Amino acid sequence: MAFSGKYQLIKNEGILEHLVANGMPVEQAQKVEDDNQDLEISVNGDDIKISSRGPLQNLKLNQETTATGPDGKVFKSTASLNGDVLTVVSSFSSHEWTRIYSVSGSELTVTSRSSKSGVPDGKRIYKRI
Q1: Shortest CA distance to 109 belongs to which of 37, 35, 21, 9?
Q2: Any long-range contacts for 50-59 (C-beta under 8 Å, 24+ apart)?
Q3: To the nearest 10°, the Cα dihedral for 92, 98, 99, 101?
Q4: Contact 48, 60 (CB under 8 A)
Q5: pTM score
Q6: Torsion of CA 31, 32, 35, 38, to 10 degrees
Q7: What fold does the segment set 5-128 form as a domain?
Q8: Nearest to 3 by CA among 64, 45, 55, 62
Q9: Biased-composition ranges for Polar residues (predicted)?
Q10: Computed from CA positions of residues 40, 91, 81, 84, in that sequence, does the dihedral angle turn out positive or negative?
Q11: Residue 24 has pLDDT above 90, yes or no
């Protein structure tokens, strides 16, 4: 599977603006933007694991899963795969948060999108290590 592997963050595009517009305090959003955390993705059949320094996400393609975020809030996520694009949609009480993982060669782009009006997309771009 094209996604399986370890990735190193090489740049952010609009992450700070995305997080702040989505309601995260500026100081916390700045810490997230400045954190150059690696990302690891494992795909085994319909089972997907996405790990970084945050909580491990265990997902099953096309099935809703429940997780608890670092802030203690419970949310539900559904993952779907279409070629080299993995989409994870998480539902919160106030909005949906979509992450689009797209692989091109040795580069992985993660686009973060909110259903809240006026929130710009943010991107994290990684290289396979």
Answers
A1: 9
A2: 50/88, 57/88, 59/88
A3: 140
A4: yes
A5: 0.88
A6: 160
A7: Lipocalin (2.40.128)
A8: 45
A9: 59-68
A10: negative
A11: no
Count of CB atoms situated within 10 Å of the CB of 45? 8
Which tokens belong to 28? 């916390």
The contacts of residue 44 (CB under 8 Å, 6+ apart) are none
Q: What is the mean pLDDT of residues 81-106?
A: 90
Residue with tokens 């997230």: 32
Binned at pLDDT 50, 70 and 90, residue 71 comes out as low
- What sign does the CA torsion over 83, 104, 1, 32 have? negative
> Token pair of 60, please?
């099953």
* Residue 21: strand, helix, or coil: helix
